[in-house]
Design brief:
This protein has 256 residues and is of the alpha/beta class. Helix content is 41%, strand content 15%. It has a single domain (15-255), classed as LmbE-like (Rossmann fold). Strand 1 (46-50), helix 5 and strand 2 (74-80) form a beta-alpha-beta unit.
C-alpha cells in the first residue's frame, strides 16, 4: 500500500509541468526507440485496457494505427464509461456522459481507421475502480491468453482509476502469462524531467510518422466532452492546453 504522502505528491492539480519544459529536456532523446513490431511481435494479440473513454487514444493512438497496419489482433477493454468527469454539470450530467463518451471513443477509433475493433465494456464506476480491483483483476485474467501484450495506464500515473487499472493488469498478466506494458498519461503532468519516481530505465519511445500523428490529433477532436470548456459550470476543459500537448508529440512512451 502506498503511503498517503506519496499519493499526495502525485496529485493532478494546476497546469502541471509545461510541455516546453519536457521538450527542452535532453533525456527524452536518450530514451531508446522501439518499433510497433517489437512492442507487439507478429502473431501476438494486443489488449488495450483503458480506464476511461479517450485514454486509449491519448496514451497509444499512434500505436493503435501502427498495429492495425501490421495486421495485429486487437482487443479493446473499456473499464469505465467516464460518466463522472463533470460533477454537478447541467450540460454534462452522468446520464449524458454515459452515452456520449463511448460514442466519442468509437468515432475516434474510426478516425484512426479502426472501424469495428473487438471491444469489451466493463461499466465499472468512474472514479471507483480502486474499490473494484479484485473484480477487475479476475475479469481481465479470464480474457487474457499467454503471450498477449497488455497495454494500460501506469501504476503510478496519479489518477486513482489509472493506477488501479495498472495494478489489476499487472496481477492479471502474472496469472495468465501475458506481458504488461504501462503507459504514462497524467504522469507527464505531476512529474518533471529526470524525476526519480519515473521508471526511465523501463521507458521506450515509439516514433510516430507525421500522418500517424495527424490522425491521432484528429481522433482526439472527437472527444468534445473532454476537450471543450463547460459553460454551465465555468470549468475549463478536462484535457486542454499543456495537458493535451504533452500527449501529442511525434512519439509515445511505453514502460516495458
Amino acid at each position: 500500500m502506498l503511503a498517503q504522502s506519496d499519493r499526495q505528491a502525485r496529485r493532478i492539480e494546476g497546469s502541471g509541468t509545461p510541455d516546453q519544459v519536457w521538450l527542452s529536456w535532453p533525456g527524452l532523446n536518450d530514451i531508446p526507440a522501439i518499433s510497433a513490431n517489437a512492442l507487439v511481435p507478429p502473431g501476438t494479440r494486443a489488449v488495450i485496457v483503458a480506464p476511461h473513454p479517450d485514454d486509449e487514444i491519448l496514451a497509444c493512438g499512434g500505436l493503435l494505427q501502427l498495429l492495425a497496419a501490421q495486421g495485429s489482433q486487437l482487443l479493446l477493454i473499456a473499464v469505465t464509461d467516464g460518466d463522472a468527469s463533470h460533477p454537478d454539470s447541467p450540460l454534462w450530467p452522468q446520464e449524458r456522459l454515459r452515452q456520449v463518451r463511448p460514442q466519442e471513443s468509437a468515432q475516434a477509433l474510426a478516425t484512426l481507421g479502426l472501424a469495428s475493433p473487438a471491444w469489451l465494456r466493463l461499466h465499472l464506476p468512474d472514479g471507483g475502480v480502486a474499490g473494484m480491483t479484485p473484480q477487475l483483476r479476475a475479469t481481465l485474467a479470464a480474457q487474457l491468453r499467454p503471450g498477449d501484450r497488455v497495454f494500460t495506464t501506469w501504476r503510478l500515473d496519479g489518477h486513482p482509476d489509472h493506477e488501479a487499472c495498472g495494478r489489476a493488469c499487472a496481477a492479471a498478466c502474472a496469472a495468465s502469462g501475458a506481458t504488461l506494458v504501462e503507459m504514462p498519461v497524467w504522469g507527464w503532468h505531476w512529474a518533471a524531467p529526470g524525476d526519480t519516481r519515473v521508471p526511465w530505465h523501463r521507458a521506450r519511445r515509439l516514433p510516430l510518422p507525421v500522418p500517424i500523428l495527424q490522425r491521432k490529433r484528429a481522433a482526439l477532436r472527437c472527444f468534445a466532452s473532454q476537450m471543450q470548456d463547460d459553460p454551465s459550470t465555468g470549468r475549463p476543459a478536462i484535457v486542454a492546453g499543456d495537458a493535451l500537448q504533452r500527449l501529442l508529440h511525434a512519439w509515445e512512451v511505453y514502460f516495458l
